[in-house]
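Handout, page 2. Input:
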Amino acid sequence: MMAVKILAFLAGTAIVLMTLRSAIRTFLVPRALQAYLARIVFVSVRRVFRLRANHRHSYEQRDRIMAFYAPLSLVVLLGTWLMLVLAGFTAMFWGLGNSPVRFAFTIAGSSMFTLGFERGRGLATTALSFGAAAIGLMLLALFITYLPSLYGAFQRREAGVAKLEVRAGQPPSGTSLIELANRVTGLDRLTELWTAWEDWFTDVDESHTTFPALVHFRSPHGDHSWITAAGAVLDGASLFASSVDRPRTPEPEFMIRAGFLCLRHIADFLHIPVDHDPAPTDPISVTREEFDAACERMDAAGVPMKADRDQAWRDFAGWRVNYDSALIGLARLTMAPPAPWSSDRFADAHYIPLAIPWLRRSTRRAGR
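Output:
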């Protein structure tokens, strides 16, 4: 019997330490670390949401359902941590001789939630009660302090998305971005936009790998999405650098690099397949016909276009190939609203994957 109690105490200690490790990796470490317990929770909750947000509903209905997915998953994650810690301390209290199991469970719950209506026997039990109370309060405090950082990053992201509707229409597209700039402000003013979105991508890269739940937080407006906005700006810069007859400037090219690095890093964290060293001639999801139609539309709108359309296509494809797979994969995963050259690139633009591809091992090469 003593051996069983020792094993129970050790098992309970392992459960508590595993849970604390998950919480620390999720809340405290400012780095893109894998937290498998959090992944399991998000995958499980998504399976439940998929039962509701099915193809019998319109996109608007599914969007309203999926708006609750990420916030509810965080609440379930907190509940999972608390239940695991409670189970671990129950085993530990029972291992110290607080029998039966119901009595050990009561001590663990009373200690963790600082209720104080039950006390155990012996100095070791009292000391363990103090530890349970400290850990319970710590988990709740970490969750409460985590939310302002999470929503602060969300608000910064969405401010850029909302502003883009003014510049690129709704749904946003790179073609509309260039047309409107040429008509209203002049193409030279796009330099400011490229610089601002380089900063936006840098911020999203840091925040969405540190707080991966942000990837699944949907915009306040159902027809907005951070990933379709990112695709529109990247396409606009790629069209500008490849096809618009203007002197070459570094700002759009730096912004494209910041963008594809951001999307690749997020895709890597979610284990979405991405080629980190694509060749300029690798296939992309945008066809030559779609590119030509975009160029003709811009030319008709008075945008100065380069005469060599074949070279412009090669240059555009060379830029697009860097972010094409990451953009399409993230648009599909987040169930992004319909938008040209991003969420319309797969057979069912409203497809909801059965599970987040977080648990598959990655065999890709390191990024350049």
